[in-house]
Amino acid sequence: MSNVKKSLLALVAASLLSVSALANTGSVLSDGNLDSMPASSGWDLSGGYRWNNSQFLVSDPSDYYVALRAVGGIDSYMTQTFATVAGTLYTVAFDYISTKGGTQFGLLNGTANSNSWIDYEVLGKSSGLTNWDKATYTFTALSDQTTIGFVSASAGSRLYLNNISVAAAVPEPASMALFMAGLGALALVARRRRLKG
Ligand SMILES: [Ca+2]
């Protein structure tokens, strides 16, 4: 095999590898829309919560959301652990209504416990009790698993949640350039085969 062919094949193989790496970091959350019953959808919940589709807050009856309600001084948590690629940047986006403020969102150290935050942000009181606010948050994954969590603390605020997504940030220009080069190499190989045949 000629050196040119070898290098072309190597380039094609590298581009395919980079594509599969991108695909693996695409959809990382299970039921981010919360339209399946939370206990069986990949989310872990503790403390008081309601899974609801009240027309007071959503117009489509198939659009469910979760309301975390701290009851009797016990914090209410909702968490999910998912696969990540260490060192990769991710963006989290979600809709929320926080009735009194002081509710929290962030990265957890694997378990739903107020001592296990790696990083968190306090969500302030929403402007209206029927107006969904949008929040975004970015983080760089520390390992091959990441846990995000939401908490309504015992102060009594309710935290309504819907449309939660986690996506890897835009692919690096270098890997996109490699992907395009790989596509070009595939086209070139196909063209040479056609010419030979
Ligand atoms: Ca929903």
From TrEMBL:
The keyword RNA-binding does not apply. Keywords: Membrane, Signal, Transmembrane, Transmembrane helix. It holds the Pfam family PEP-CTERM. The keyword Amino-acid biosynthesis does not apply. The chain crosses the membrane at residues 173-190. Residues 169-193 form the Ice-binding protein C-terminal domain. Residues 1-23 form the signal peptide. NCBIfam families: PEP_CTERM. This is PEP-CTERM sorting domain-containing protein. The lineage of its organism: Bacteria, Pseudomonadati, Pseudomonadota, Betaproteobacteria, Burkholderiales.
